[in-house]
Design a protein that fits this description.
The chain is α/β, with parallel strands linked by helices. The chain contains nine helices and nine strands. The radius of gyration is 18 Å and the shape is globular.
Length: 260
């Protein structure tokens, strides 16, 4: 076993240890509960755009993108656009690494790798900021409900032109909406890639944290994920990700499509 393989085995052992530490997992949920009232996830940007995510989940997404090497990332929920810019920048890194490996030059504005962002309401100031960003040429915006048949059709048409696809769901967090999204987009995910369903942590938080929201304990992305998996044996929850992160908005939300 070479040193890198040995290190990898050590990491796997670390994650197994974390998965068995129920007290530490409980402490992590308490920490998430307490920082939520401070809107902690709102405090970070990526290349100038607010990205309303936990940094831990962004790091995990970077690892997935490097491993999967997608040429299309589909994201529902745009907000300020930081997550779109993050994904576009990661795809640009793939282009750069590919060009270096093949001793090629690249045009930074031209790439087969794209990000599709869907939102029911792309506010003008956010759209302007995304369009004016240096990575805008890699981003395709669709305004409309992610579960509208016309929107789904547009995304399916785009997806038909790509081979390695990653999906990130982060829009309306009700059970019904997320389950509809999973049924509409998960089948587009390429084998070995992921359909990441964010904000599954709602199920693990006190219900009083969501007084003015349509979602709640028992009605959220995690309940939708579990319902979806009952009829979709080609996906599995990659629990190794949530166990190594501990602090995550997506417990049970990292769904890996099982290779054929």
């Amino acid at each position: 076993m070479n040193p890198y393989e040995q290190f990898g085995e050590e990491v796997k052992a670390n994650i197994r240890s974390l998965s068995n530490d129920l007290d530490l997992q409980a402490l992590s949920r308490i920490w998430v509960r307490e920082i939520s009232r401070h809107k902690w996830a709102y405090n970070f940007t990526w290349l100038g755009r607010p990205a309303i995510q936990f940094p831990n989940d962004a790091w995990a997404l970077q690892e997935i993108i490097w491993r999967v090497q997608p040429d299309l990332i589909i994201e529902t929920g745009i907000a300020h656009g930081g997550s779109l810019i993050f994904s576009a920048s990661m795809l640009a890194q793939l282009d750069i690494c590919e060009a270096i490996a093949n001793n090629e030059t690249i045009n930074p504005k031209i790439s087969r790798r794209k990000v599709v962002g869907i939102d029911i309401d792309i506010r003008s100031h956010n759209r302007d900021a995304i369009v004016q960003h240096p990575y805008s040429s890699r981003i395709h915006l669709i305004e409309g409900s992610s579960i509208d048949p016309m929107v789904i059709g547009q995304v399916q048409e785009i997806a038909s032109q790509h081979s390695k696809i990653l999906v990130c769901l982060d829009s309306n967090h009700t059970h019904e909406h997320v389950l509809h999204e999973l049924n509409a987009y998960a089948h587009l995910v390429s084998p070995g890639s992921y359909c990441i369903t964010y904000d599954t942590l709602i199920e693990d938080m006190p219900n009083e944290m969501f007084p003015d929201r349509p979602w709640s304990v028992g009605n959220n992305p995690k309940t939708a994920v579990h319902e979806f998996l009952k009829g979709n044996s080609n996906f599995e929850i990659d629990t190794s990700i949530q166990h190594k992160l501990l602090i995550t908005v997506a417990p049970d939300g990292y769904l890996r499509r099982i290779p054929a």
